[in-house]
């Protein structure tokens, strides 16, 4: 999800805080679902009735106007208890942005949360503690951890205070004037002091031994915790209600071995700042490894049990496809349901689920085999953990009769109306609305109860490994679907309220990622993330992780994540952690922008970490504009200057400048987006990649080694590649030309240095009927056909919510039958894509492993102010054994030239530095069924290349035997 400057947008193409404004959000943000509150798992839970809470009355008597004037700001006093504007940052220090002057400050606490304001005084406290301002200010370690409060005043607590007990109470800080008149008050944010006192490295979750099952829950602010143990996933009263005992903030109990295979829920009695009450919260275990079908109970699942392991599972690490270097990775992004939901070669009960990947003769698996054989190394699966928005119980799903949908015109608005009417009740959602990170999603299993999720997920991993593919899991640690004490999807915020979710300076949850931002800068949040990653790597043999909105996670967390994974070994953990690759969306926005909450994992902060991030620069330069710009803005391959579509790109000189800048951006991306790579820009100057600037003044290049860049032109976010090409190109060109442009864009990605990333369906001309955000558009708009009969173009106007403003552009295109590719076009696209992969893996020169190797071997021609419009020429040089200079990497080819011609006309290009070489068209292109690429030529005597319109030709110099 969320390629927010990502696989869908330019990170700096919007104001610095997109928050929840749809105007600035990429179409990919996870959308909160509307859910009715559910009762606790059984009537036994009903310790307190479910209710919508309103804050307790803040005033028990009505102040007169004169008293308001005498007591300062009425609104400050009135709202004081609703906010948490002070920070309890360590055992002895509270930070508060308040002026005390000649007054006095106090900490007040109430175990039963009975604090209220009467007659401009706070009453109901159990304890009143005087605070002393420390004129030295906040300690350096506090400012480093909480940079957004660096200017706050520091207030010291007296020594020998029982802080641990106070943290279980409602606490506020207040300021009184010197004459004891109440002036200000606010609640406290506790993560700093909780981290200092209660950071914990011991066991959490359920642990299994031969004779017992033990439960551990980190909940230092809880006043009491009980575990409700159930025999079954739903219904019935609990078998037992077990009180847990606390030790240093961790609640634990030991139960009999017979608990294994049962279900449980925690009842946590805790003060919750969102309601200003002590609540009884009912929650799953944050470290759950299994769930009931409705996600309301945690399943006691021993992942080490032989009964949960498919044959050969323990030795699966030895069955992994060979990966010599991260530079050899090519990624194919796919949604589990998309893969088989419409595949008639899969039996109906398995469509859209894990087991569809185990059917070796299905259309989808046969297609994946082709991709694997050609060079794809990793399948990136969109979220497969427990997420909201899709009921795990398939019998509750609603459907639309596809025969009705198929009978409607291609530009009708009726399809989307029918789909959106049931979109929150069908089986479809991308899954960027996390509930529990550590449990496979139940809707993809044949049975969401019991152990089936685990067994079938493991079988899927085995099946993909068997056909030569490693698995990347899309992880969403930047936000959670639920919060508060009663939301059915809330878990972490019920266990330790106010800790796991990042809050603003008023104490309210940040929502810049769309909903309920998490705070990896807090110790136990970071630990949960690291534990979860290791869990997926060890227990499910996952080979890589893609981090959604990685920029909202701290850089330190990401580095620790990489280190924790790379420390895993076959001998100790059953996996080779050194082969696990991580990457994500490094967009810098919201409250974390410019390191606002610490050094975050944004693009510019990740250089040198060997963690990959999506390169939106190459996407925007190739296609034109950004996902936030006008959809008709053209780019390098979509006709900018060379085949205008009627959109106003300014003067011809301006269009020329835009095209030239786009070429430079693409070239530096083809050189792995290296900061220090030197090329000649369109003005004829020698510049580093970091010296190339975008429209907003930021550098184009930001990485230090090739595996830190993920090059892409499309992803699940925004329009598919074929759809965006169909929007940006002139309406009067042929579908065959659009297909060539689709292939041309893909070729740049496939032949660049760095790691190429492809959205599933790029190779089949996949369409979503121009839907720019299909996260909840159902199977209808997300269909993909691996039999190559159709590409899903023209299945109705895309859903109104995200697309209505573009319907005037979309409607005439969908209505025009000439836009629809035929099977022959799709087959050609598949062949061309496979050929690109085969070319990439025909020589290690396409996959150089170091920045130094790229600097030494990669050159660009056709540069400077006299460049031939629309043409990029890149050469890669190899050395020769026994000769000084470059080492030899490729035993077959000593020199490679890639010529990208984005022009609608054939080009003839003379390149003197490439004269007198023994270059010939790559043998894979010689054997291609594409007549145009086969007609590409090179003349050694003149150094002249002739390349047909909209064609990427690869020339190689074979070694002399």
Kindly describe this structure.
With 961 residues, the protein is of the alpha+beta class. It is built from 25 helices and 38 strands. Strands 19-20-23-24-25-26-29-30 form an eight-stranded parallel beta barrel. The chain has a seven-stranded mixed β-barrel with strand order 1-2-7-6-3-8-9. Strand 4 and strand 5 form a beta hairpin. Helix 12 (523-540) packs parallel to helix 13 and helix 18 packs parallel to helix 22. Mean pLDDT is 91; it is low at 2-74.
According to DSSP, the number of beta strands is 38
Enumerate the strands of the largest sheet in spatial order, edge to edge or round the barrel.
19-20-23-24-25-26-29-30
**Overall geometry:** globular
Uncertain residue ranges? 2-74
Structural class: alpha+beta
How does the major sheet shape up? 8 strands, parallel, barrel
What integer value in Å does the Rg equal? 30 Å
Query: Terminal Cα separation, in Å?
Result: 50 Å
Helix proportion range = 10-25%
Oligomer: single chain
How would you state the average pLDDT, rounded? 91
SS element count, helices: 25
Strand percentage: 15-25%
